[in-house]
Amino acid sequence: MTERSGWDGLRGRRMAEPGASDAYDATRRAFELGAAVRTMREERGWTQTRLADAAGMTQSALARFEAGGTVPTLVVLERIAHAFHAQLVVRFDETTPAA
Fold it and tell me: Which residue range or ranges hold the HTH cro/C1-type domain (predicted)?
């Protein structure tokens, strides 16, 4: 019989797998992008349908993006920025290498 472990044990084993850290970071970035769009939309009092129409996409695609379920292309991000009358800014930040 195998010993069962909790979430922390499972997460630790999965994060030790090759590529897991990169996949986790990509998922985090997708979630953060979606959350930023949702915040901007809600601050304007817009529905998902209104933003989706203005950006030339479907409401369901926007909902998936806002939930962090998809990684948008730069073209999609530019269309969303245009719908908000905002500027899309993409930049690279220096990181401190791990010792």
Answer: 37-92
Instruction: Give the pTM.
Output: 0.77
Task: Tell whether the torsion through CA atoms of 9, 15, 16 and 18 is positive or negative.
Answer: positive
Q: In this structure, what token pair is assigned to residue 92?
A: 């690279």
The full set of domain ranges for the chain reads 8-83
What's the topology of domain 8-83? 434 Repressor (Amino-terminal Domain) (1.10.260)
Residues 6-40 have pLDDT tens digits of 878 877 887 888 888 888 888 889 999 999 999 99
> For residues 86 and 79, what is the distance between their CA atoms, to the nearest angstrom?
10
